[in-house]
Amino acid sequence: xxxxxxxxxxxxVGSVELKPEIFEIEPNEAIVHQYIVNFQAMQRxxxxxxxxxxxxxxxxxxxxxxxxxxxxxxxxxxxxxxHGGGTVFGPHPRWYGSKFPRKMKRLALxxxxxxxxxxxxxxxxxxxxxxxxxxxxxxxxxxxxNLADKKCLILDEGKNEMMVLxxxxxxxxxxxxxxxxxxYDMLNADYILFTKAGLDKAQEVF
Length: 206
What we know:
- The protein has two domains: 2-45 and 98-205, Ribosomal protein L4/L1 (Ribosomal Protein L4, Chain: A, 3-Layer(aba) Sandwich); 50-90, no CATH class.
- It is 33% helix and 15% strand.
- It has seven helices and six strands.
- It has a six-stranded mixed β-sheet with strand order 2-1-3-6-4-5.
- Strand 1 and strand 2 (12-17) form a beta hairpin.
- Helix 2 packs across helix 3 (102-118).
- The radius of gyration is 27 Å and the shape is elongated.
- The protein starts with a strand and ends with a helix.
């Protein structure tokens, strides 16, 4: 499968071939679903915490004697039955994620890339070079590629601080490194915009 390569002015300057073992496989929806569920679970902070009766101060003394008062027997004012008492089976800090096999993760990412390629939702840019940190410059590049009103994931290779800072205020644009991309961001984007260096790195890694 060949994809056209554009420059920053939106002019076609060539084409590049996508590796069929990455961009032309039959997508495995079940694996993609498992990957997304696991990915979202990994994003949870898991720091919700409640206090059980052992974590609450006081309550060492029996409130009243066992018999003869006419009231229900009680052993502690910190009982879960009492106001201000401990919580039963409440949440505690924990890790919600789980280990996800590397081969399954790789298959999920390839499935998403193949689906995007089949839907012609992948574009390739020769390179991205900004003269200064400017959000408008990024918007101009996307407008020339007819991506101005689309959710776009830009994947590059290496550190590009100017691009990071220029994209951070754009709600529909996300910029990242191709080698560290996750399936959730790819699936969430309408279009994936690779730089040529980013595409080469992605094909090398995957």
